[in-house]
Amino acid sequence: MKYHEFSIEERATIQVSRLHGMSQRAIAKALGRNCSTISRELRRNTGDNGIYHAPTAQGHMRQRRVVCRPPKKLVPGAELFELIVQLLREYFSP
């Protein structure tokens, strides 16, 4: 089974469902996800006040992705990138 991150729409559904008092199991069924997945999402992204807020959760996810991924070696505009492009245009082998 392939892993899919929550979309902002799914996070908004979780937020509204929690505000209406739905259980994690009911939310999981509505989203077609495992209840453990909902539990982990709530544990990771519920604020100190105990309230789950979808935009904040989305921001936390983006921050975690930035931290966990190594920086790119070739960035357009960088000196190394321009050198490689120039050498490829001169038919040097990659």
UniProtKB/TrEMBL annotation:
A biological-process GO annotation: transposition
Pfam families: HTH_38
Origin superkingdom: Bacteria
Residues of the Transposase IS30-like HTH domain: 2-45
GO function terms (MF aspect): transposase activity
GO cellular component, one term: cytosol
Entry protein name: Helix-turn-helix domain-containing protein
Organism: Phytopseudomonas flavescens
